[in-house]
Amino acid sequence: MSHLNTTAGVARRARRVTTLGLLLAAACGRGADPRPNGAGPTARAEPAAGATDAGWGSYNGTLDGQRFAASSQLTPQNVAALRPVCRVRLGEEGTFQSGPLVVGDTLFVTTAHTTVAVHAATCALVWRQTHAPRAPDVYPVNRGVAYLAGRLFRGTPDGRLLALDARTGHVLWDVQVGDPAKGEFTSSAPVAWNGRVFIGLAGGDFGIRGRVMGFDAATGKESWRFYTVPMGREPGAASWHLPATAARGGGATWTSYTLDTAAAELFVPVANPAPDFAPQARPGDNLYTNAVVVLDAHSGALKWYHQLVANDGLDYDLGAAPMLYAASGGGARVALGSKDGHVYAVDRASHARLFKTAVTTISPPPTPPTRRGVHACPGPLGGVEWNGPAYDPRTGLIYAGAVDWCGTYTTATEQALAGHKPGMPYYGGSYAPAPGDTASGWLTALDAGTGQVRWRYHAPQPIVAGVTPTAGGLVFTGDLGGTLYAFDAASGAVRFTYPTRGAIAGGVMTYATGGRQYVATTSGNVSRTTFKTTGSPTLIVFGLNAPAELRTTTLPTYSTTGGAAPRGPTP
User: Fold this and answer.
1) What is the DSSP letter of 65?
2) Torsion (CA) 36, 41, 43, 47 in degrees, nearest 10
3) Can you tell me the mean pLDDT for 100-117?
């Protein structure tokens, strides 16, 4: 489940790129330097050792989800000298959970309605494209883009999938993939590979029937679809003992996906069933909710699955992208971070569970939710959220961020459950923190072979941000208090902190361009007000030996309720 707050959208089409925008974008595409004189790092800076140019080409860096960065200029010995180089205030308030991409010398980042391209070393604006909703938003959130062959692909809060020209921001195609009137929308960062784009529907807590789809990257035409809640003669349909409940059974996909390109296998994390807190209303295991589903990327056919929690009544989504790795002497595995507060490892050959390690406080409830309420840790906003485990092949460790926050669950009456209407929330009850329940965070390092905890760090605020290990021996992440961290990858010692003054809820990643290594973080998520998050959506880029003057770019304000942002891509 993702925290929901429906807002009205403004139905109007985005206009074409302005002439000035086309000229500037074309110039940058030919290799012109868009940086103003005296702003940011200069071309005269000498390349540093360990910073061979390397981008960040997908939501998790690479399609296997490991988030490991090969750049090694930044180390535990010098990271204390890291300083902000530039920042971009993105001009749209609200959720900011995006995972940025870097391709060449261009960084791409999204808000709920805008896609922004900036120079990766200076934050100089290349273009911004704004999506004007054609129907009221279901929930205004977006977690990033996919890149393939000069194109970007992203979902929208009104249930659409867009393809943009990565050089100019021009919309190449725009197709409807979900029905927002039913609560269907697209929040996840897609995956693009081999001429196809893969994305699923969010909105399980509205009682949708979840599905994942493959699209032709050139045209936007749907190639295949797989329902994450099976019905009729589809395999797994018998796990819904009351077939009618499957039609509104949830099974959304909130975040990104993972792909084994050699095997052409797409790994899909499927979230909770609906109604969330009333498992008695949908008896059975409720496949394929709370499971990793492995599909043939060419056809969408089911290859195998592994369910973590059957007949879930505690909103324990598998909401983060799986991570593929090979443990020393242990064969191919998939690591899964769940909102139930554990990291799992599953053998990809036998599909057997190899370990299950707690990464936050665990206190199971005595029963499923009741009318009087039951207390459990983690609660529905705890555990591993939308950014999952990362892997460092140098240390042999898996790193996972988590939220430590308990909750009290209450189920609804039968009369309330029977009154569900399409497009309306379908929780089947409610939740709330109990007196004394406070939110904090954990970063845990686990042995990739055994699941044994090697070290852990208790953060004062929840950790939902991306976690990124590097070849230089560091692990970067951030918390909802706005602190950016760098840890010693082997020991867990804190080597660097920086107060960004905005909740970090999206990507924290590193890349090298122009022979220099940079770190980029999102800052300013304000969606889950129960976390007391703060700030305004801002991208901040850091580097060593940064200039004294911090370059700040502020984009025009955009609002679906009458803001003044330009329509379409702009310089």
Assistant:
1) S
2) -170
3) 98
